[in-house]
Design brief:
alpha/beta; eight-stranded parallel β-sheet; globular
Length: about 300
């Protein structure tokens, strides 16, 4: 199969949408559709339902399927859908097969959460998923700094639909080495730690980056992408400076507030309830005021 259109789609701002909850605690279907349309209207061309910013691990399997279906329906003809899948192998395979049936064209495989991950076992896990959906592009989500680049190359040798990587190890030098060991030109490299890491990762080989902030301010994220594509790191770092504190709030306490800050910002804008599911928690009052102050400066 020719995966070049999917590879081109990955080299972009890869939006990770939130999952809005209704007052009764379930998924707010109407608001989910509205937030997805807002992203698309803002210029986003690839979205990842069931990503970490979408609270993947707090959703039931039925809810994950619903989020996939809602996103595919809204994105039809407007954006590429890269569905997050994970957990045990049968669950990940079932989710990937459902993504294909729903009309998605790619899946992102979450970093295995098993406490004991062998490097060859990592290959086996991803191979089982990729082989089940040979028609879909497959994008491993790598957060393990110990994984060797040649293991990714070995996976792609047997599964040519493994076409890109979401790399989320906070070490630009490690990323540069890993990408070259795996094959810099062989895969699309997506900086998986969002805007604050995007400039350094682009400098060493990335051509796309993930974003949760894009839920709040699509134009801000797309401004950074435009600058990075042009090789204008001065302009990219001006965007970086604008969003630095907001992203630092998300990263506090080992990213405990990653989703919470995004939902708080959307709440300030009147777009989404602030509620998140355990083990996340809503922000305390003093932090809410700081989030509001940050987004006010962006003149949205």
């Amino acid at each position: 199969m020719d995966f070049s259109p999917l590879k081109a789609a990955l080299a972009d701002v890869v939006a990770i949408p939130v999952t809005p909850f209704a007052e009764d605690g379930g998924i707010d279907v109407a608001n989910h559709r509205a937030l997805t349309r807002r992203l698309l209207d803002g210029g986003v061309r690839i979205v990842t339902p069931n990503g970490n910013t979408g609270e993947f691990y707090a959703l039931t399997p039925d809810e994950q399927r619903l989020v996939t279906e809602l996103t595919v329906e809204e994105a039809a003809g407007r954006a590429t859908v890269l569905v997050g899948v994970g957990h045990d192998v049968p669950a990940a395979v079932a989710a990937a097969e459902h993504a294909a049936e729903a009309g998605a064209t790619m899946v992102m495989v979450h970093q295995p959460v098993h406490p004991y991950v062998a490097q060859e076992g990592w290959v086996d896990y991803h191979r089982a998923i990729a082989e089940a959906v040979p028609e879909l592009g497959v994008v491993p989500y790598i957060r393990n700094p110990l994984l060797a680049g040649d293991r990714l190359a070995a996976l792609a040798d047997s599964c040519p639909n493994v076409i890109g990587v979401k790399y989320a190890v906070p070490d630009a030098a490690r990323f540069g080495a890993f990408a070259r060991d795996a094959g810099l030109e062989r895969f699309v490299w997506v900086a998986g730690l969002a805007e604050l890491y995007a400039p350094s990762y682009f400098a060493t080989g990335a051509t796309g980056f993930t974003s949760g902030l894009v839920n709040v301010a699509p134009a801000v994220s797309l401004d950074m992408l435009e600058a990075l594509r042009a090789g204008d790191y001065v302009a990219a770092m001006k965007v970086w400076e604008r969003i630095r504190r907001f992203e630092e709030l998300r990263a506090e306490e080992q990213s405990a507030n990653n989703v919470t800050v995004i939902k708080e910002a959307l709440s300030v804008l009147g777009l989404c309830r602030r509620e998140v599911r355990a083990p996340s928690r809503v922000l305390p009052e003093e932090r809410r005021a700081e989030v509001a102050e940050q987004i006010a400066a962006w003149a949205l």
